[in-house]
Amino acid sequence: MAVGTLRFQSACTRFTSYAPAIGQRRFSPTLPLYRQSLHLAASFSCNAAQQQVQTSKEKQQKQETPPLQKAQKKGQQEGVTPRSQDFNMWYLDVIAAAELADYGPVRGTMVIRPYGYAIWEAIQSYLDAKFKETGHSNMYFPQFIPYSFIEKEASHVEGFSPELAVVTIGGGKELEEKLVVRPTSETIVNHMFTQWIHSYRDLPLKINQWVNVTRWEMRTKPFVRTLEFLWQEGHTGHATEEEAEEEALQLIEVYRKFAFDEAAIPVVVGRKSRLETFAGAVRTYTIEAMMGDRKALQAGTSHNLGQNFSRAFDTQFLDSQGEQQFIWQTSWAISTRMVGGVIMTHGDDMGLMLPPKLAPVQVIIIPIWKTDEEKETVLSAAVSVESLLKKEGVRTKLDASDQRTPGWKFNFWEMKGVPLRIEIGPRDVANNTVVVSRRDVPGKSGKMFGISMDPAELQSFIKSKLQEVQDNLLNIALAFRDSNIEDVGSFEELKAAITAGKWARGPWAGSDADETKIKEETGATIRCFPFEQPPHSGRCFMTENAAKEVAIFAKSY
Amino acid sequence: MAVGTLRFQSACTRFTSYAPAIGQRRFSPTLPLYRQSLHLAASFSCNAAQQQVQTSKEKQQKQETPPLQKAQKKGQQEGVTPRSQDFNMWYLDVIAAAELADYGPVRGTMVIRPYGYAIWEAIQSYLDAKFKETGHSNMYFPQFIPYSFIEKEASHVEGFSPELAVVTIGGGKELEEKLVVRPTSETIVNHMFTQWIHSYRDLPLKINQWVNVTRWEMRTKPFVRTLEFLWQEGHTGHATEEEAEEEALQLIEVYRKFAFDEAAIPVVVGRKSRLETFAGAVRTYTIEAMMGDRKALQAGTSHNLGQNFSRAFDTQFLDSQGEQQFIWQTSWAISTRMVGGVIMTHGDDMGLMLPPKLAPVQVIIIPIWKTDEEKETVLSAAVSVESLLKKEGVRTKLDASDQRTPGWKFNFWEMKGVPLRIEIGPRDVANNTVVVSRRDVPGKSGKMFGISMDPAELQSFIKSKLQEVQDNLLNIALAFRDSNIEDVGSFEELKAAITAGKWARGPWAGSDADETKIKEETGATIRCFPFEQPPHSGRCFMTENAAKEVAIFAKSY
To answer: Which residues are in the Aminoacyl-transfer RNA synthetases class-II family profile domain (chains A, B) (predicted)?
Structure first.
């Protein structure tokens, strides 16, 4: 059963339980680069069941070098594995080479490096403002939850107990009651709501927190599924069922708009099937994103919790008629998984491609010179362009180092996914112009020559080009998505679509068992019943029962 | 030994191991309010050694009502315990009544409520910008640290091992290696630095993270010392000792400036004594704040770590001469403890008094009407004043509810520490004026009548008054601090000063044993060797040895 953002199983074919040996961080000249790179890919996608199987040769390799540092160097110097060649290896190469993340010393944990964290900060900055605009306040709940709390809501404990991290020792002593490190906070939130909410005047109560959460996942993949991850979790309490439903819908709309407008990811919004509903919710809404390999990524969820938690925690209020009632609740979350979604939606063979609104560096300036004299004039022009754009609020970086050639820098910042590049050479300075290149339009057709250095013209040109890149990324992803959703009228057609790597969409009125059968036979699950319903036959493609709506099936992360 | 921001012992005289029973949250009409309030105060300041001693009467009281909810209601309706009467109880009353925090279900944990969290957000917003301006990047390290890491640096393990929370179960299984929930991140940071840093070109490496940390404290007090708290921790690596020292000094200056300019807390900046230095540091710089009860609060620290961690973790780089060298490091932190410092510096008998720069609500607007007709005109004027000020970036709130009298609202928002109040009645509307009251100037002298409602005039008036309140709070605290530091020339004089509740300042060249003796006999510790050294005799007041500098002694939180 799915219980949250980061729950679905990923394919996992290789494994190394690599744990870096401190101080041993140099290259192994004896291991071919190809093998080293394979080795890297393996180290992230790991299956605990396989942890026991480890040859002595693998052990020996482990001692030689931490694979991610190697991949970082390889990716930066020779380029990443092309996406078209091996999507999974490309993903891991990009994360290493672009310095988005590294893995922590504990299996399945991740260090988010500055370039990756800056993407998360951009996500936070947009969403935090939206949450506040819609009347939510930030606060903080402790991360340690008494074990007994988790057990109060029946389906919640069923969903979460297999993946809990448990603190049993505090201050050197065995604890009387074990403490769960929060996997999500519904239980502790309800414990506190019960104390704060007395009358209908205390409602609605709308809060949010930006925190770390822990789920003992067996198959991990950086950003997509890690033992510990960062997210925001919103929690609200309402006097009526309708209000809670409105809230859950309002928040999934905030997420949808974020995905489209900021992340340039054309998510499909819809309702989860019963099997895929959050453990403890009445109804789960989701935004589902199609990755570059056409697998689905559940990128954000909003739950109508009904009265499930308020009944379990006795969270009651006195309504305006003087009657005691259980409150109606919602919860909703987006996590660092979204960073993985951005990588896997927009990247190409060269590496990362970041939507301008989330890019830590929107414009990279690369000065080009040969003589010392040229260097002086070129650098001086580059510095003024940099400060002009920064003043205009454009996230700009000047790469003025003389240890690398301009060509190396072009490749490096392309791999890092920077939306626009400005080149300034001696002739440009003489003409008072620059050359601007778009990351999203490959080769010469993405190059624009003779762009005026005049401050007013340049900044307006850059801003409009950033918007064009933003729009273009969304349109490309939208076309890709729509050309990879297939309408199906039978189980056979569904199987064919899934085998071809596509999403299948068809009228559905099957049972949980029918859904499970599809999962077992094809690996695909119901991603959602989309809000936008196409015309359909009205007959379930599986059971021939009357069907009110279509469902979308896909393999997923 | 002191090992960080939240380490010093607080006085602890009362205790109740209260754990709220779910659903039992109503008032007990049989328990006098005075007792209920005592009961509340007791519940926060707890000593684990006393946990065993608990009378059945206390147990019975526990069942009746969660004390903080009671104090919240009492404080909001009858006012908080006056500060002049009982500082500790006032502190807890204010936290409850102003809804700054609540305690979590696990002993010593704290829920930070929206009004308290908004103060923390204001602190974050200022500091985060300063860290970025000075070249630091945010990132995220996992919170689970292999137990073996903690043991690598000798004094670090000695300082931290008594207060660790330890995860021993993950995903339902006993873990092979126990995991520490981070009490601070030097060890895991060094583990990663060792992998990222190869040459002098990789230095300096300057990062920061905003995270939760856990220390199994026995005596807790909301904000001041809690089992889990929020902080930022900066970590840097440098090629030279001088650069690391400069960095440590630069950051303590960032903290000093923050304390003065934003929190209006006139901290004393200085160097810690050897005994009070962070576990693992060569040198610790500190900002020490004088609370309203004249106890010292260590409000932020910056550590020069030397090569202690780089040697323990083998973090080396190739210098420009091609030699392997250990890096030089710093770390520095400010935590949610600062919120406690703000409360205890500026509050008065009425409750909280917030410096405008950190106040979640800077201006509260209270409309006053009798008839429905008056209500309409008054509210319409109040709404335009509100939207004017909000547009100008002033954090403004309009309390338009008709369930409370204006008098009740005056008291409530005074207790919440809002710097400025705007009153608007029918006569004000007729005159196109408002009445403005300052929180920091009690009674009629703080009231300013006939302030024009003209947008340009009003917004500039409000802004300048907010700055006046900000400056006045700092000046009051500064005068208070300076009148409570006494220069001492002998141990006897020190004892007298400490007994009188003051800070003692005198030339010091004593040994660790001498320092310990003072602590044992007076309860005071060396807070710091202040950067601003007054003229002094040059003879240690304790040992008569030649003394180069004065130290400040005080009792502390």
So the answer is: 107-355
What residue in A sits closest to B316 (Cα-Cα)?
A23
| Residue A137 dihedral angles phi and psi, to the nearest 5° | -110, 145
Residues in A touching B104 (Cβ below 8 Å): 141-142, 144, 188, 192
Chain A residues closer than 8 Å to B316 by CB:
23
Q: Show the CA angle centred on residue A172, arms to residues A168 and A174, nearest 5°.
A: 35
Averaged pLDDT of chain B: 89
Q: Name, in order, each residue with C-beta under 8 angstroms of B242's C-beta and a sequence gap of 6 or more.
A: none
Where do the H-state alpha helices sit in A224-307?
A: 241-261
Type of residue found at B58: E
Beta-carbon separation of B216 and A166 below 8 A: no
d(CA A496, CA A486): 10
Nearest to A227 by CA among A112, A340, A104, A108: A108
For residue B486, the surrounding DSSP H or E stretch is strand B485-487
Distance CA A271, CA A287 (A): 9
Q: How far apart are CA A422 and CA A451, in angstroms?
A: 10
Return the pLDDT at A537: 96
Alpha carbon distances (Å) from B226 to A143, A309, B96, B222? 13, 28, 16, 6
Pairwise CA distance, residues B382 & B397, whole Å: 10
Q: State residue A30's pLDDT score.
A: 34
Percentage, residues of chain B above pLDDT 70: 88
Could you tell me which residues come within 8 angstroms of residue B406 by beta carbon, excluding any fewer than 6 positions away?
B366, B368, B423
Which range (A106-115, A474-483, B72-81, B391-400) has the least confidence?
A: B72-81
ipTM of the complex: 0.89
Q: Which residues of B touch A121 (CB under 8 A)?
A: 138
Integer angstrom CA distances of residue A19 from A52, A67, B150: 14, 10, 17
The length of chain A is 557
Nearest to B106 among A146, A313, A314 (CB): A146
Q: Is B130 helix (H, G, I), strand (E, B) or coil?
A: helix
φ, ψ dihedrals at B157, nearest 5°? -65, -35
Mean pLDDT value of segment B232-250? 98
Q: What are phi and psi of A76, to 5 degrees?
A: -75, -30
Cβ–Cβ < 8 Å for B467, B356: yes
Give the Cα-Cα-Cα angle A546, A549, A554 (nearest 5 degrees): 115
The model scores a pTM over 0.95: no
How close B59 comes to chain A (CA, Å)? 18
Contact B194 A23 (CB under 8 A): yes
Residue A20 has pLDDT above 50, yes or no: no
Is the CB of residue A103 less than 8 Å from the CB of residue A222? yes
pLDDT digits (tens, 9 = 90+) for A439-478: 999 889 999 999 999 999 999 999 999 999 999 999 999 9
Within 10 Å of residue B194's Cβ, how many Cβ atoms? 24
Residue-level pLDDT at B161:
87
> In this structure, are residues A179 and A147 in contact, taking their beta carbons and an 8 Å threshold?
yes
> Looking at the predicted structure, is the pLDDT value of residue A307 above 80?
yes
CA angle centred on B554, ends B415 and B84, rounded to 5°: 30
SS3 B515: helix
* A105: contact with B, CB 8 A cutoff: yes
Separation between Cα atoms, residue B277 and residue B286, nearest integer Å: 10
With cut-offs at 50, 70 and 90, classify the pLDDT of residue B77.
confident
Of the listed ranges A472-481, B4-13, B181-190, B398-407, the least confidently predicted one is B4-13
